[in-house]
Design a protein that fits this description.
Blueprint (H helix, E strand, L loop, with lengths): L1 E7 L9 E9 L2 E10 L4 H20 L6 H25 L7 E10 L2 E7 L3 E6 L2 E4 L6 H7 L5 H6 L19 E6 L5 E5 L1 H4 L4 H8 L4 H14 L6 E7 L1
Antiparallel strand pairs: 1-10, 2-3, 3-4, 4-5, 5-8, 6-7, 6-9, 9-10
Helix pairs in contact: 1-2
């Protein structure tokens, strides 16, 4: 298993409010987490920092190699829930950070078994010989209206609503994380990223640059591409090659 991650402030932001943590947590298992903060002058950075550390620490302390899949699911969901409580409480204690929150994708990989919890519009992909597959669902206004069959995506983009998210860690007292479980094959890769990448890089380009490419080189190339297209947002990419 090869793991790499990179983050970049982009070309137009004054602060990088993205955060990532990647690490092997046992002989056969690894964790990768990406958060994209939002709210207030510094609130987004605080929210993503608090959330990612809370999730990582809980996974690192509680994970065992012999856990059943159901227990891994419970661990991921409870870790995101705990992070939500901490960020929400902190936002209420500090009025200048009221409403701060963060997206989150947390992936725990054991061998070729992939377990993911997600909130917001940061994404996880599986890259395999058959192509690229988005694992997570975007919690956005556009996606919600698409599901209801009443969306005009171009109109929403023009109104500045394309990236309005409907769910985030820390904004409400409680949050519901999506959970995904799948089995990959040796040689596949899991890629998680913030929307600073996906707003510029279509899935096909992500696949072309990242599949069967050394994770560190692929992450750098993808960030470079997004910056070359304007880099209006922070950009974070984590890749785990199985």
């Amino acid at each position: 298993m090869i793991i790499a991650a990179k983050t970049d402030i982009g070309k137009q932001r004054s602060e990088n409010q993205d955060r990532y943590r990647v690490s092997e947590i046992s002989e056969n298992s690894a964790v990768a987490i990406v958060c994209d903060g939002m709210g207030g002058t510094n609130g987004g950075g605080i929210a993503s920092e608090v959330a990612i550390n809370a999730i990582y620490d809980r996974l690192f302390i509680s994970y065992r190699e012999d856990m059943e899949p159901k227990s891994i699911k419970n661990l991921l969901i409870s870790s995101v829930s705990a992070a939500n409580t901490i960020v929400y409480s902190k936002s209420r204690e500090e009025p200048e950070n009221a409403g701060m929150g963060t997206t989150c994708v947390a992936a725990l990989i054991r061998g070729t078994d992939i377990h993911i919890a997600s909130v917001g519009d940061s994404r996880a992909y599986l890259l395999s010989a058959s192509g690229i597959r988005q694992i997570t669902n975007d919690h956005t206004v556009v996606q919600l209206l698409k599901q209801r069959g009443i969306v005009d995506e171009e109109e929403l983009r023009l109104r500045g609503m394309k990236n309005v998210i409907t769910r985030a860690v820390g904004v409400e007292e409680r949050v519901e994380a999506d959970y995904f479980e799948l089995t990959a094959e040796k040689g596949d890769s899991v890629l998680i990223c913030t929307d600073g990448l996906t707003n510029y890089c279509p899935d096909e380009l992500i696949y072309a640059k990242a599949y069967k490419t050394a994770p560190e080189s692929a992450a750098a190339e993808l960030i470079g591409y997004a910056n070359g297209k304007g880099g209006k947002d922070n950009i974070t990419v984590a890749i785990i090659s199985l």
